[in-house]
Write a structure and sequence with these properties.
It is built from one helix and ten strands, in the order βββββββββαβ. It is mainly β and 129 residues long. Strands 1, 2, 4, 5, 6, 9 and 10 form a seven-stranded antiparallel β-sheet that branches. Strands 3-7-8 form a three-stranded antiparallel β-sheet, with no helix packed on it. The longest helix has 7 residues.
Length: 129
């Protein structure tokens, strides 16, 4: 029997200031913005709006939960771990998720410190689109 599944490899990267991090390799890619979901009709799943990324480098300045679909196998993340660049490579994972709960959502999460969001960025490879 066949079945559908999703897979996401969660990677939390420490950074001095998430607002200064930059992620490359996403320009022109379609993404789902899960922070802007709206209710669907009764019994239907919520609607998740899709957008096209127009920036050369992606930066975060608010709660972010984006599923970038059909992304390249490599991203460069700058200003992580002592201000360095980090190369992220993924194989056989077509999607990339960028996530940070920001202040309000961090306070609502039991397993996340209220003041941890400024010092982390998630750039995750997966199959979620």
């Amino acid at each position: 029997a066949t079945f559908d599944f999703n897979l996401l490899l969660h990677a939390y990267f420490k950074c001095p200031d998430v607002r200064r991090c930059q992620v490359t390799g996403l320009n022109g890619v379609t993404f789902l913005d899960r922070t802007r979901m709206t209710e669907g009709p009764p019994g239907a799943p919520p609607h998740v709006p899709a957008y096209q990324e127009m920036r050369e480098v992606v930066t975060l300045n608010e709660m972010t939960e984006r599923v970038y679909m059909h992304t390249p196998p490599e991203h460069i993340v700058t200003n992580v771990v002592s201000g360095r660049k980090m190369r992220i490579q993924k194989y056989n994972f077509p999607d990339t998720v960028i996530w940070n709960p920001w202040e309000q959502r961090a306070k609502e999460m039991q397993d996340f410190g209220d003041d941890e969001h400024p010092n982390m960025i998630c750039v995750n490879g997966g199959h979620v689109g």
